[in-house]
Amino acid sequence: MFTGLIERVGKILRIQALRKGKKFLIDAGAAFEVSEGDSVALDGACFTVTEKDVDSFWVEVSPESLGRTTFGKKKAGDRVNMERSLKLGDRLGGHMVLGHIDGIGKVKKISNRGEFQEMEIETRRGLEKYLVEKGSIAVDGVSLTVNQVSDLVFSVMLIPETLKRTTLGGKRAGDEVNLEFDILGKYVERLLRNEKKALSLERLQEEGF
Fold first, then answer.
1. What pLDDT, in 10s, does the model give residues 86-144?
2. What is the pTM of this model?
């Protein structure tokens, strides 16, 4: 589990093709301490460290992750937001982020608001149901608050600290970002769907109607 509070921005040094999937070598810096087997979120997607050097590490990206996240289009030199998984007893400063990307969004518009930036992002049809004004969302692994929602488009406000410490400060209209919606909303939807099933014709017949 993660919080959506980015610890460091790394860089993709090399990409190797596997028989299925790809391997990514990430320049993390010596201060970003991880070990083989650790979970790490890169642009919000959870991966396992497979090899570790002094200031870099390798992760393997499955075909599923390549298709569902922006890693399918990543190239050497691209920067990525990095966060290590929570330890028992750590403070939860952002919100509960699992590192399981729901889909890719596209930046539609960026507007300067003094020292802040307002970013408008479009999601794909079917995922907009998880968008709630003032709810939480992870954009490229960054925990943010949804400001406004209009059909498939939602907006978030980026504070100067976020612009400085994450890759979101370098985004432009047309760029793609990884989106993970609040897990609580997805659980509520599942519960409601099961409740609807409970009122099915079969259930009524079982009750003697």
1. 877 777 777 889 999 999 999 999 999 999 999 999 999 999 999 999 999 999 999 99
2. 0.88
Q: What is the 3-state secondary structure (H, E, C) of 75-99?
A: CCCCEEEEEECCCCCCCCCCCCECC
CATH 2.40.30.20 positions along the chain are: 8-84, 103-194
For the chain, percent helix, then strand, then coil, each to nearest 5? Answer: 20, 40, 40
What is the greatest pairwise CA distance in the chain? 69
Contact 165, 127 (CB under 8 A): no
CB atoms near residue 92 (< 10 Å): 14
Considering the segment(s) 103-194 as one domain, its CATH architecture is Beta Barrel (2.40)
If you classify domain 8-84 with CATH, what class do you get?
mainly beta
What's the rounded Cα separation, in Å, for the pair 33 and 183? 28
Q: What is the pLDDT of residues 176-186, one digit of tens each?
A: 999 999 887 77
